Amino acid sequence: MRAFSIRKSTRADIPQLIDFINESWVRTYAPLIGESVAEELATAKHTQSLFEGEIDAADALSLTAKDTQNRVIGHVGGFKKAQRCIYIDRLHVAPAWMGKGVAKDLVAAAARDACSKDFETLELTVLEGNDRAMSFYAKSGFVVDQARSPTEGLGDRKAITMVREIGKGGN
User: Which of 35, 62, 105, 169 is the most exposed place for a label (fewest CB within 10 A)?
Assistant: First the structure.
């Protein structure tokens, strides 16, 4: 039995999500773009209205992983980018939970959720130099979209676009 659960995010989750995502975002991107820039961008980006929009919209994505003590340990969020495409804007997992299947299960749940809404593709970008994320996404069925990579990223880091086709049932 796994010691965490994944469910659709609710408005009650938002304060915890903002703190969790901002901390994780800074931890992830500070080595690539600098701590002060990462903190500034994280605070500007991860707002109450961002999460409300994803939670309330039928064509968006917001899933939260919580441990048995109801603490946020992971989150995946995104929005409709094209007719049949959900863009995964962020996927974050608490350091203590890395390597325990949380990210894998969040991606699988995102694919099922997107498929249930008649989307056919998941898309995301990864900053050059984030080799751990590139490897994880490749193992999760994402492939580099050579036609659109690299593109503008953060600071002087380019972003690599990756896509995953999802079939019936989110596979």
Answer: 169
